[in-house]
Amino acid sequence: MKRSAAHIVREYGPFTGVDQVHGVTYDGERVWFASGDKLVALDPDSGITQGAMDVAAHAGTAFDGRYLFQIAERRIQKIDPGTGRVLASIPAPGNGGDSGLAWAEGTLWVGEYRERKIHQVDPDTGAILRTIESNRFVTGVTWVDGELWHATWEGNESELRHIDARTGEVLEKLEMPAGTVVSGLESDGHNTFFCGGGQSGKLRAVRRPR
């Protein structure tokens, strides 16, 4: 198992009117982050916010190439990013204890925070297709180039972990600086992870090792 220090390449925020950053996703141009009662869009190049939608946004966020998915307490809502309209919703597998959210392989991947689990979920019905166990609290989930990564936050320590999607075995760890929490995780599809900063109200970009 490889272990190294996370390389933070950029910090964004804190942002006006944002007390916490929860889930994070990326639509190819903008980073979207959940801030409780809003989904905020950010241009990652300029660092300037591009607007916000008034929707419940309490934890993980995902993008399937067309729609946003957002954990709102015990539900996962499918949202039109153009209008902010909620198009559908399914039950969240953790029944309110859910954390990270990602889209891959035509399905949703949902972190269950204190249960230390990652569920693969049918996006139409909410049915759990399979579950991967972790040994740390799960605070973010993302896929990049066929690799499953998840964030942890436990004992005031956070890591980004590349795990075997079949067994849950940890293949690589990126250790965040002491006191730097990760409350949401998304890849840009290339060399960068975007990490929610929890109560710091910040978003951080971390270099993906290659």
What does this structure look like?
The protein is an all-beta fold and 210 residues long. It contains no helices and 21 strands. The strands form 5 sheets. It has a 5-stranded mixed β-sheet with strand order 1-18-17-16-15, with no helix packed on it. It has a 4-stranded antiparallel β-sheet with strand order 2-21-20-19, with no helix packed on it. A hairpin with a 6-residue loop joins strand 9 (75-79) and strand 10. 43% of the residues are buried. The mean pLDDT is 96.
Compile the SSE list and pairings.
Blueprint: E1 2-5, E2 8-12, E3 24-26, E4 31-34, E5 39-42, E6 49-53, E7 61-63, E8 68-72, E9 75-79, E10 86-91, E11 98-104, E12 107-112, E13 117-121, E14 128-133, E15 138-144, E16 147-154, E17 157-163, E18 170-175, E19 184-187, E20 192-196, E21 203-207
Parallel strand pairs: 1-18
Antiparallel strand pairs: 2-21, 3-4, 4-5, 5-6, 7-8, 8-9, 9-10, 11-12, 12-13, 13-14, 15-16, 16-17, 17-18, 19-20, 20-21
